[in-house]
Structures are given as C-alpha cells and as structure tokens.
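Write out the 3D structure for:
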Amino acid sequence: MVLIEVPDQYGYVVGVAVSTFFVNVLHVVKTGSLRYPAEVKAPARYASDEQIKAKPEALRFNCAQSAHANFTETHFPIVGSMLIGGLVLPVPAAILGGVWTLGRIMYLYGYVSKSGPQARGRGFMVSGLSGLGLMGTAAYAAFAFLS
C-alpha cells in the first residue's frame, strides 16, 4: 500500500480544476446561443456550407462548436496533469492550470468573434504553453513517486 500525503496548497489545484468545469458550461451556453440565429437544427452538430452561405451566423456557430470540441479533447489530460502534478508542485500546477483556463476562455471568444478562426491564436498559445507546463509537472511528479 502506498500512502500519498496531499500538500497543504493542494486546495488551490482542486479549486482551479473545478473552475474548468464551469468553462465547459460556458462553451455549452455560447454554442447554444449561436445555434438559433444560425438556424442549425439539432441534432446537426455543424452548419453545412450551404447554411453558411445563406446565413453568416452559421460560421460563428461552427466556430463555437469547434472550440467546444477542442476544449473537451484537451480537458481530461490537462485536469489529470494538474491533479497529478499538484501532488508534488501544487502552486505551479494551480498557476499553470489557471493560465490554461484563461487561455481556453480567450480561445473561445477569439474563435467566435467577428474576426473568425484566426482570432483564436492568442488563446491557443496561452493554453498550449501552460498545458505543456502542466504535463511537465505531472511528469516531474511521476518521477518523484518512482524514486
């Protein structure tokens, strides 16, 4: 049996991890709010090229859907990295997790802005770099537990 002592600052890590759940809700609300003006009926996941030509709002809906899909693709490994890395480096993991969360919000709002997909770049850089840092904290923790 292995006992793991959770550091005092681990609450910060848990708090930031929980905040990411609300970012998912933000994605759901934003995507849902763009579905009606785009006239994309459920269960269609994306607007067709014809719908985009007829209604420019359909492109913004597709961008919101794509941003949400990208968020859900990266969410699990990032939260996992944060929770693992936070066992050894709680403050850096919480800070990197907070920066990742902010980057994902920037990514969403950049993507759905009137500027379109090219406006997601800053959010991509912020979340991408902080995500790599989080994976680094998880790797560091893994090696620490092995030694």
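The helical segments are 10-38, 49-54, 57-85, 90-111, 121-146.
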